[in-house]
Amino acid sequence: MTNSLSIQKELQYRLDFEKLITSISTHFINLESDNFYQGIHQGMERLSNFAGFQRICIYILDPEIPESVFEWNQLDFPTHKNITKEQLPAMFPWIIQKLSNNEVINFVSPKRFPETAYDELDLFLSEQITSFLLLPMINQSKFSGWMELVNFSQSKDWNQNTLELFRNIANIFMSALERKKTEDKIHQLYISLEQKINEKTNELSTLLNIQKALTTELHIDHVIQLIADEARRLTNTRLGTLYLVENGKLRLKVISGDLDVSLPIGFEIPIEGSIAGIVLKTGSPILVEDTTTAAGIFQEAIRLTNSKSILIMPLTSGRETIGVLSVSDKESGVLGKEEERLLKMFANIAIIALDNARLYKEEQDRREEAERGRRVAEALRDILRILNSKLDLPEVLQYIANQSKELLNASSTMIRKINYESQTVITEASANLPEEFDVIKEIPFYPGGSERILRDNKPVVVSNLRDSLGRYLNDPQELSSPQQAWARVILKFYCSHLITPLIVNDSLYGTLTFYYNRTMEFSEEDIYLGLTLATQVSLAIENARLRDQEKEIAIATERNRLARDLHDAVTQTLFSATLIAEVLPRLWDRNPIEARKRLDELRQLTRGALAEMRTLLLELRPSALQDASFAELLKQLCEALNGRTRIPVELSIECEPDFPPDIKIAFYRITQEALNNIAKHADATLVIVRLWNPDDNLNLLIQDNGKGIQMVNIPSNHLGIGIMKERSSALGAEFIIESTPGVGTKILLQWNTSIIRK
To answer: What is the pLDDT of residues 18-55, one digit of tens each?
Structure first.
């Protein structure tokens, strides 16, 4: 009878102990990261309350875990919580050696220590410890620390079965610590990634601002100086210089930064036998970390600038290297690959600015040769400035129409576009046109002699409109009714006109017409200037088209980048959660009931965001996808759908299937595809996901009450149905889809679990 009671008592104790293990394990599973340390303390307190220990310590040797000691102390017993990792090996050498072999130390008295454990013996005797239990904490075969369970007032001894239960407790605490370590690593990786994204964003923003500054400046001397200034600022260096090829040599054009140097503007470096010459010939940058190794006449340039290190970058326009850009001596740190990368990107912007500036100078020189004087040159420069601005095309065309009128001393100007699709001619901009011209704002397009001349990029010059058009006014065989209306309104106000073609992409886009209320004899200079202005209009039109294309490309590129690097669903969910969190304090004061609803919504959003992030992490770590239980995977997918779409999801898991990883992944992918289709296309208000296992069949049901799909002649690849069917077929499962428009869609996946046994 006594033996039976003893067995019952032992069984009850073991049962209570296992309940404790389950309780602590569940406690850690549900533990939020922010409450981790408090949770560890609570877990140790539960263990102490059950087993009667008066001090519990966890000593950490793992260098990746910042804490050294976790301690729970019942009363004012001696504490070890201030011991550091560095002190642990010196204080407990024998214990560490013993526990590292995965052995348990269970002593009813410190005197059980061997003679070699004199450090531990002295410490335990000084603290008046009566009995103790030391449990190794092993993670992936690596000794990471130990758990110490101590009594001061009574001696306790534990049998082998109980020691195994204590080992389980230690393993649970070790798993919790490892999970916290992993979460901290993920958090740090996220912070690091966010920092890198911010750095790249700032870098791109800086380069775009530089590009804007360079492309809006057209004077070549200013552009060159700006290039040197921005190169020095971008690389945080003391000195920047720019050399251009002139007469077979590299000639110094500008210096930026430390102007207290002896290097004169115009200093020349031979291309042969110099480092800069090598850069010029090879088209590749060179970084000289120690300028004392520089050779040739370039050594003289270094001596005159007192440079310690220098980075030289080629400036290549098309296939021709036209000069070199150099920066010297970082303000802090040393020149390296990062500066080389930045300067290489900047050089591409700089060469465009130089080319633009050179083209502008050449154009300006040609216009000055036309001897139109300062007024004409300034007006053309203004037009170029407008072309390089971000004004909309109608504003640019209107500006050019006004300027053109003044430059050619015309009474009026008109810019017209040929719409080949509708066969009409439309007025896009004009200056000083009479109101009567509104009747011909849009007229039919008639191909003819004038059009053939304009297509050859030649002007149509009419000095006497009355002689040219007047004789056709009353001849319907020569002019149609719209043409006669056009001729009458022109002859009413004007005597001469000059029509110049607008050629865009080698095609006739339209015309720029100059009207005069006096008879004009057009000179070659007038015609040349008219053609030049028409070219500016063509450029404006082409620039507008290129800007539109550039915007489309930029938008597509940015969308692709965001699709790769960011996870919009999580961001949107968190943004919604942030909005709710911001209004909750004010809403709570006004309407607590509504606030509680919003609080519940906030909880759902954050749970959904967490689920989506976990799903993302699973995608990034395939091994984690295999290790996770299928029930947990289903829960995460459903919570992610709910958090992203706010659609209620009824999840019913009636079994926990134990199948191979490839089968689990196939079920997961089919579920993921089905839920994504619901989120994108179903317009559902309820989703049901059920997993159950009658007999040998594992059934997975995914059902929504959305708008449904038309099942007749549905393509195999529509909504990923083909992929889901292929996955089902590959694992020998039956894939059933039923849908009724306006009612919803039901997907049933049936798989015979006996396949595993076979």
So the answer is: 898 898 889 888 888 888 889 999 999 999 899 889 99
Q: Give the tens place of pLDDT for each residue, 81-137.
A: 899 999 999 999 999 999 999 999 999 998 899 988 998 999 999 999 999 999 999
At residue 297 the predicted structure's pLDDT band, cuts being 50, 70 and 90, is very low
Q: What is the pLDDT of residue 274?
A: 77
DSSP state of 328: E
| Three-state SS annotation for 336-349 | CHHHHHHHHHHHHH
Structure tokens at 694: 């009658």
Q: Which two tokens stand for residue 539?
A: 């450029």
Stated as kind and residue range, the H or E segment containing 611 is helix 592-620
586 and 488, same structural domain? no
The answer to whether residues 47 and 172 belong to one domain is: yes
Number of domains in the chain: 5
Of residues 530, 225, 554, the one with CA closest to residue 380? 530
Q: Structure tokens of 568?
A: 């919009």
The total of other beta-carbon atoms located within 10 Å of residue 242's CB is 25
Surface-to-core class of residue 231, CB atoms within 10 Å of its CB (0-12 exposed, 13-18 middle, 19+ buried) = buried
Helix axes 373-387, 393-407, angle to 10 degrees: 170
Judge whether 372 lies within some domain.
no
Q: Give domain status of residue 447, yes or no.
A: yes
500 and 393 share one domain? yes
Residue 380 DSSP label: H
pTM (global) more than 0.70:
no
Distance CA 43, CA 267 (A): 77
Q: How many Å apart are CA 120 and CA 130, to the nearest integer?
A: 14
Same domain, 663 and 543: no
* Dihedral sign of CA atoms 82, 83, 86, 87 in order: positive
Phi-psi region for residue 312, left (φ > 0), alpha (ψ -120 to 50) or beta? beta
DSSP secondary structure letters along 364-430: HHHHHHTT-HHHHHHHHHHHHHHHTS---HHHHHHHHHHHHHHHTT-SEEEEEEEETTTTEEEEEEE
pLDDT tens-digit readout, 143-159: 999 999 999 988 888 88
Establish how many alpha carbons lie within 13 A of residue 486's alpha carbon, considering only the half-sphere containing its beta carbon: 17
Secondary structure E strands in 432-551:
442-444, 460-462, 496-504, 507-516
- State the CATH number of the domain containing residue 678: 3.30.565.10
List, in order, residues 6 or more apart from 124 with CB less than 8 Å away. Answer: 110, 113, 132
Secondary structure (3-state) at 82: coil
Range of the domain at 704: 630-757
**Cα first-last separation, the chain:** 50
Residue with tokens 């209306």: 485
Are 608 and 650 within one domain? no
What six digits make up the tokens of 222? 């200013």
Amino acid at the residue 663? I
Tell which residue, 376, 402, 399, has the closest CA to residue 387.
399
DSSP 679: I
